[in-house]
Amino acid sequence: MTPTLRVLSDGVTRHGREIRPLVAAQAKLTRRQKNIMLPSGQQLMYENRIGWALSFLAIVGALERPKRGNYRITDAGRQVLKQFPSGFSQQDLKALGEDPTSPIRVYQSGSRTRPEERTADAQAASMTPLEQVQSGIERIHRDVEAELLIRLQGQDPGFFEHAVVELLLAMGYGGTNGAGSVTPISNDNGIDGVIDQDILGLNRVYIQAKRYGDEHPVGRPEVQAFVGALSGKADSGVFITTSRFSDGARNYADAIPARIILVDGKRLVKLMVRYGVGVQVRDTYHVVEIDEDFFE
Question: What's the per-residue H, E or C state across 33-101?
Fold first, then answer.
């Protein structure tokens, strides 16, 4: 991460393809080091590590993405270089994120970090190879979930509404012949999207989507307004946000006769990863074991 941030310290916006050779030169990688492949044989190790560094630095706010595939240092990133002129680690950035006076964002994975995960490095030696693979995949997914949430919060509300409809369709809502659409802003009446569960539209799923930052939770009044918008149309709906719901909002949703499903940002990105919305499969690994039948 240190050579990556140093390469971008001049403030120039660069594409990832341009960044990789510059970082390799900054890190003084040898030809042999640059030719090392990942065990899968599908990618160079140094390119994979630089890609991870770019992603992590963007998650904590040291880099920003002005456009697709491009990166630029932020004021927070400049402060990191100033504070750690000899180099920094992932733990240094996480510590800065926990400091309220630091511009570095808190590193938040898509799920709550379990106590045993905090000592993963110390436990790695006691894990089987399969457990290490599964643990690594879980960490990759958590990092992708965290980045997904930041990306969604940075998009316009219209994009988020379309993403929510696409997710629900990928989850199976809409059935074989159903369809989903975003309600025109000028006439949404408190409903952002509708999914028809059948061709005639006799059974519908109504959606409310709020693209909020972490500091802006959805409160009871907004959920109550959504319930009011459903009056006369349906007795159930889905309220999805990139933020979180206040206790008042959740208590209200639990107490009313209408069935209102609340999906907060953490659950949202988990569903997106699970159903392949906004993400793509990068590598596929096959784990083998002895075929006992072969030796019978």
Answer: HHCCECCCCCCEHHHHHHHHHHHHHHHCCCEECCCCCEEEECHHHHHHHHHCCCCCCHHHHHHHHCCCC
Q: What is the pLDDT of residue 94?
A: 87
What gap in Å lies between CA 147 and CA 139, rounded to an integer? Answer: 12
Q: Which residues pair with 70 in a beta bridge?
A: 15
What is the reported pLDDT for 236?
Answer: 86
Q: Which residues pair with 203 in a beta bridge?
A: none
**pLDDT > 50? residue 5:** yes
User: How many whole angstroms separate alpha carbon 111 and alpha carbon 67?
Assistant: 27
Distance CA 183, CA 206 (A): 10
- pLDDT value at position 110? 45
Rounded to an integer, what distance in angstroms lies between the CA atom of residue 129 and that of residue 147?
Answer: 27
Residue 122 scores a pLDDT above 70: no
Rounded to whole angstroms, how far apart are CA atoms 73 and 69?
A: 14
Q: Count the Cβ atoms, other than its own, within 10 Å of residue 136.
A: 12
What distance in Å separates the CA atoms of residue 199 and residue 288, rounded to the nearest whole number? 45
The H or E element spanning position 179 is strand 179-182
The whole-number pLDDT of residue 184 equals 66
pTM above 0.85, yes or no: no
User: Is the backbone of residue 289 left (phi > 0), alpha (psi -120 to 50) or beta?
Assistant: beta
Residue 111 pLDDT grade (very low, low, confident, very high; cuts 50, 70, 90): very low
Q: β-strands 193-196, 204-210: how paired?
A: antiparallel
